[in-house]
């Protein structure tokens, strides 16, 4: 189970201000490309699951993931997550031949689940979005500051994977308030925003 604090920033000015404040704590910047797959009848989405390929820093590496049963309330996200590394050149080939993903069944527990648990025998590529993620080590936490670029606009969010989400949410909120940075609780995850075709309001 992945548990994260997720707070949405309203505009690029808030994102820039927070980025400047956190700059002494910057550990790395990641360029991410996220691409999603489902059946032609969106069986995975109907089962509250998402099959994703994520490419990092111009294909330096890539990861196949299956996320299921997401719950997001009061700025705290809980989701079942399974991840596997995958060769970037192989992963790229699935963008034009999605059904070839199903042939990984013998080597991938994720694709075994997709085949067995969800009964999937055909996949299509849904497209996706890009994300620029600043990773900061701040007060013992790993903060991830995201600028997410959809075809229909750009959104901004700060995330923090946490074993004590209520405590860490308060710490982050207090920091934002002390520095005059507006925020809201994230109400939907990035995949749901992508599927909706519009930015959260």
UniProtKB/TrEMBL annotation:
Domain of life where this protein originates: Eukaryota
Limits of the CYTH domain: 1-198
UniProt-listed CDD domains: CYTH-like_Pase (cd07374)
SUPFAM superfamilies: CYTH-like phosphatases
Protein name listed in UniProt: CYTH domain-containing protein
Organism: Hibiscus sabdariffa (roselle)
